[in-house]
């Protein structure tokens, strides 16, 4: 008996929209500024289906011109939809080109939706003996499911789930899949603007179907209904029938199913590769190659999977022997298709990379090195941790295609002797030093008592200022800007794990080629980025802020901070007690024990068993949502939810900080060393990593206690914390020239009380705690574009009260509103906004016709100049303080930066001097209409100091 053939039909726009919004918080922007999220998301889905299922037949179905028949029935059908985002409009032609190059059939018919095309083809294929899988996240397709037609739904977080008849029966509580049409007709659909029956939701629709079987059955038995429901259903009977008709997928679209037209065949590999290279899809190109070239193991898996009644969810693995997946005899094929890659590599690029030996060769090399004005260098080390890493070698390049590698001996004394030979270069003030992520190299060389002096040019930092939304690692930059693919580190030492080699184990010839290539490519990138920095008018920001800050951060990171491990151990015990107590309370309220940390189990308890809300929000996978924002909204009304949120907070605090921090103490120094990243946040803020010391919660008592674990180096030192007071509000007051707010700051008033007095029209002395709290929420919320809904969630105000408060706020501060409008207008005209120092935040979606996408860009247009200016100002303060500490030969060390706060380790005999110095430098870092104010605190730990 021959195995049943399988047809996969992809719902193009559903997958395109899903791909686009999957990246909405972190869009994929290439070097040309193009948003490639939708193309990447869709193509990943397409390749995933092919790789997982190895289908015999496949097609992609598009909408064109909407559904003529439905609009004729109901003019408002889908009329409520926002304009398609530009990112998707741009994507469609590229997706069509990709499908054409991959030789994948596209089915589109003017006046019909993809749903109807897929429905018609699925039923026709079923008659031809096919199993058909409809690839779509859209639940409406459940109505088409039969013995041989399945839904193949992408799941949130990866993978797919297959809906056959049993799954549809369970999901919709129906006897037959066709009843899903009735279910949709009763419920209506806000997305498609299908009205449905007023007052009928999910539970009611399922109840009606269980009792009456269909829309018509319900309408024939309305005499059994009661009260307002009876009135609503009877009054809207025609609307119900219309809604059912609108929800019904057509099965008679004029398209034919000819199996030959839908057969999978070989892609045009060079054509696909060319498109991917234009879009800068490096990983996707690799994925494509792997998908369409697979080994014997994959063939066997594919044949096994085809024999199953439903698709597999496993990804086939490529074996050793390679062959073309589509076309030809897989048994006889032994090689993969030739992939034409236009990118250059070390193998086909003329270059001269030399190893520098000891003696005369080294002497001549250093003489030549010292004659240069600009040199790129790159250290090779035994590991990624600069505290423990040892030098294996240093590569140098000052001319494209040429460079030198100086290997370092393992013996520490001999290595230090070689450092002394190279010291004149590194300490030369005249020679510019180029590198990629120079902070790492500087930290490694400081262990050898070597300062890197002179001007610096860091290609990673330069590119961050040029295009903050792109990735900044060297491989990406080389491929994007130089059309060159460097040798991968894994080719040299292998992948992570037990079998990975040390750089010391790599043959000298190989490490020379690898290391010098890095220096050569970085040197070339620097030449590319220098004019681009000038064009973006960011040279001053680069040279005066980001580069000097790099040196400051390297010192801070090497210094680290002392940790009271004994205190953390005792805090862990206390937290465990608190967590157990909360568990008991939650179990008592639920009347059973369950895994509180499981979103699925928690959702079932809160919304299915306890029924805390009528219409609980659900995730894309259909389970009840227990996300933070969902639970926070309900917390004030339900004690069990308050306890759950506290349980989560304490559990995270314990695992992320209390248990983890002692494990991150560096044995060599006995201190914790965070890593500050300059190239992560588009606003210019620093990010802290390994460990992240910027996200320690301070709004809860237990969270604040974690700060108690950070202590001075010894009993002769204290921690000094210096915190900018309300810097973002001061910046927005100054930039907006809002006189009322400026005066309040100048007069030293409590800005939140001052705002409350004006908004609530009461004397400042009579402002209540609640009024001040609400004014504070609005003050800070305005910067982040708070809405009436958002303000209502954060306070005890109703939505109408919140709206009234926001309206009154803007009337009180009219210049503030005008300034915010001007920022948005500037962004619309120029495509970016900027900070007080000219740091640009590009906003590609500011003119989007999609309201949701445009709204997010508008909020960023207001927030970025404010938050970014605050980040710029504290960077200036850090640079100036660092210089004063060195010039004054002080022993005080700057340890931490937490957004608007700096933490110092201060000898007690320097405390008075430091208070004056730090306050003066921070408050005078930048001058504007509103004075900057710094609050100082000192103590035996960070909590007391803060």
Question: Could you outline the blueprint of secondary structure elements for this entry?
Answer:
Blueprint: E1 6-11, H1 12-22, H2 37-53, E2 57-62, H3 68-73, H4 86-101, E3 106-108, H5 114-127, E4 131-135, E5 149-154, E6 160-163, H6 165-172, H7 179-187, H8 202-212, H9 215-219, H10 227-235, H11 237-247, H12 269-279, H13 282-292, E7 293-294, H14 296-306, E8 323-324, E9 352-355, H15 360-369, E10 374-381, E11 391-399, E12 402-407, H16 412-426, E13 432-435, H17 438-446, E14 456-458, H18 459-466, H19 474-481, H20 489-493, H21 508-535, H22 539-559, E15 562-563, H23 565-590, H24 599-609, H25 628-635, H26 639-658, E16 665-666, E17 671-672, E18 675-677, E19 687-689, H27 701-707, E20 710-711, E21 717-724, H28 727-736, H29 739-746, H30 751-759, H31 769-783, H32 788-794, H33 799-812, H34 814-830, E22 832-834, E23 840-842, H35 851-887, E24 893-898, E25 901-907, H36 911-923, E26 934-939, H37 942-945
Parallel strand pairs: 1-2, 1-4, 2-3, 4-5, 9-12, 10-13, 13-14
Antiparallel strand pairs: 5-6, 7-8, 10-11, 11-12, 15-20, 16-17, 18-19, 21-25, 21-26, 22-23, 24-25
Helix pairs in contact: 1-2, 2-4, 2-13, 4-12, 7-8, 7-11, 12-13, 17-22, 18-21, 19-21, 22-35, 23-26, 25-26, 28-34, 28-35, 30-31, 32-33, 33-34, 34-35, 35-36
């Amino acid at each position: 008996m021959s195995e049943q053939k399988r047809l996969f039909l992809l719902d193009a726009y559903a997958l395109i929209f899903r791909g686009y919004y999957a990246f909405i918080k972190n869009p994929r922007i290439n070097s040309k500024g193009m948003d490639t999220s939708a193309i990447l998301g869709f193509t990943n889905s397409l390749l995933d289906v092919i790789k997982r299922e190895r289908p015999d037949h496949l097609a992609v179905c598009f909408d064109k011109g909407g559904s003529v028949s439905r609009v004729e029935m109901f003019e408002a059908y889908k009329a409520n939809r926002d304009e398609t985002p530009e990112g998707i409009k741009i994507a469609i032609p590229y997706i069509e080109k990709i499908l054409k190059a991959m030789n994948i059939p596209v089915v589109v018919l003017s006046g019909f939706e993809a749903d109807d095309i897929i429905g018609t083809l699925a039923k026709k294929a079923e008659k031809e003996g096919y199993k058909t899988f409809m690839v779509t996240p859209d639940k409406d397709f459940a109505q088409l499911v039969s013995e041989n037609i399945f839904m193949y739904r992408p799941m949130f977080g990866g993978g797919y789930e297959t809906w056959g008849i049993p799954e549809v029966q369970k999901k919709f509580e129906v006897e037959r899949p066709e009843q899903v049409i009735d279910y949709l007709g009763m419920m209506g659909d806000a997305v498609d603007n299908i009205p449905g029956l007023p007052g009928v939701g999910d539970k009611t629709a399922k109840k009606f179907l269980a009792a009456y079987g269909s829309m018509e059955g319900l309408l024939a038995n309305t005499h059994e209904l009661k009260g307002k429901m009876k009135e609503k259903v009877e009054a809207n009977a025609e609307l119900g029938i219309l809604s059912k008709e609108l929800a019904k997928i057509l099965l008679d679209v004029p398209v034919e199913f000819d199996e030959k037209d839908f057969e999978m065949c070989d892609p045009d590999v060079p054509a696909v590769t060319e498109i991917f290279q234009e879009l800068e899809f490096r990983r996707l190109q690799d994925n494509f190659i792997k998908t369409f070239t697979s080994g014997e193991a994959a063939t066997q898996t594919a044949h096994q999977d085809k024999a199953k009644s439903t698709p597999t969810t496993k990804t086939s693995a490529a074996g050793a022997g390679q062959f073309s997946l589509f076309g030809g005899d897989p048994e006889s094929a032994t090689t993969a298709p030739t992939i034409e890659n236009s990118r250059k590599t070390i193998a086909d690029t003329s270059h001269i990379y030399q190893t520098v030996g000891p003696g005369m060769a080294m002497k001549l090399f250093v003489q030549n090195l010292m004659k240069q004005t600009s040199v790129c260098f790159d250290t090779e080390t035994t590991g990624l941790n600069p505290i423990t890493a040892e030098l294996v070698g240093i590569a140098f390049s000052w001319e494209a295609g040429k460079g030198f590698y100086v290997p370092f001996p393992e013996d520490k004394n001999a290595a230090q002797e070689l450092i002394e030979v190279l010291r004149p270069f590194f300490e030369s003030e005249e020679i510019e030093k180029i590198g990629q992520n120079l902070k790492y190299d500087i930290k490694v060389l400081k262990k050898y008592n070597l300062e890197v002096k002179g001007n610096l040019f860091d290609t990673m930092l330069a590119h961050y200022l040029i295009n903050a939304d792109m990735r900044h690692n060297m491989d990406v930059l080389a491929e994007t800007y130089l059309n060159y693919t460097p040798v991968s580190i894994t080719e040299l030492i292998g992948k992570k794990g037990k079998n990975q080699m040390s750089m010391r184990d790599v043959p000298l010839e190989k490490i020379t080629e690898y290391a010098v290539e890095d220096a050569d490519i970085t040197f070339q990138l620097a030449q590319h980025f220098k004019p681009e920095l000038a064009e973006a008018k960011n040279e001053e920001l680069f040279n005066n802020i980001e580069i000097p800050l790099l040196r400051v951060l390297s010192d801070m990171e090497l210094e680290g901070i002392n940790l009271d491990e004994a205190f953390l151990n005792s805090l862990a015990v206390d937290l465990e007690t608190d967590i157990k107590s909360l568990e008991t309370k939650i179990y008592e309220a639920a009347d059973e024990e369950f895994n509180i940390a499981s979103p699925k189990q928690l959702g079932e308890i809160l919304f299915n068993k306890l029924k805390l809300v009528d219409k609980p929000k659900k995730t894309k996978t259909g389970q009840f949502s227990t996300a933070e924002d969902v639970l926070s909204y309900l917390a004030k009304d339900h004690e069990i939810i308050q306890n759950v949120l506290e349980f989560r907070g304490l559990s995270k605090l314990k695992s992320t900080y209390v248990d983890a921090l002692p494990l991150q103490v560096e044995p060599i120094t006995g201190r914790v060393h965070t890593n500050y990243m300059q190239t992560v946040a588009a606003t210019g803020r620093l990010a802290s990593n390994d460990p992240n010391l910027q996200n320690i919660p301070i709004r809860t008592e237990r969270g604040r206690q974690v700060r108690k674990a950070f202590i001075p180096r010894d009993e002769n030192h204290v921690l000094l914390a210096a915190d900018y007071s309300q810097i973002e509000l001061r910046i927005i007051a100054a930039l907006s020239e809002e006189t009322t707010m400026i005066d309040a700051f100048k007069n030293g008033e409590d800005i939140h009380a001052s705002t409350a007095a004006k908004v609530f029209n009461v004397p400042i002395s009579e402002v209540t705690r609640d009024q001040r709290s609400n004014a504070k929420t609005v003050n800070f919320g305005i910067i982040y574009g708070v809405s009436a809904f958002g303000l209502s969630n954060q306070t005890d105000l109703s939505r109408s009260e919140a709206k009234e408060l926001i309206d009154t706020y803007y009337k009180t501060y009219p210049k503030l509103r005008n300034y915010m409008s001007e920022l948005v207008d500037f962004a619309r005209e120029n495509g970016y906004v900027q900070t007080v120092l000219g740091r640009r935040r590009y906003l590609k979606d500011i003119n989007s016709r999609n309201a949701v996408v445009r709204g997010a860009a508008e909020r960023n247009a207001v927030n970025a100049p404010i938050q970014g200016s605050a980040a710029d100002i504290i960077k200036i303060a850090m640079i100036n303080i660092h210089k004063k500490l060195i010039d004054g030969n002080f022993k005080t060390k700057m340890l931490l930066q937490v957004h608007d706060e700096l933490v110092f380790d201060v000898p007690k005999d320097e405390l008075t001097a430091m208070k004056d110095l730090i306050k003066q430098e921070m408050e005078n870092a930048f001058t504007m209409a509103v004075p900057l104010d710094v609050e100082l605190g000192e103590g035996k730990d960070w909590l007391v100091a803060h």
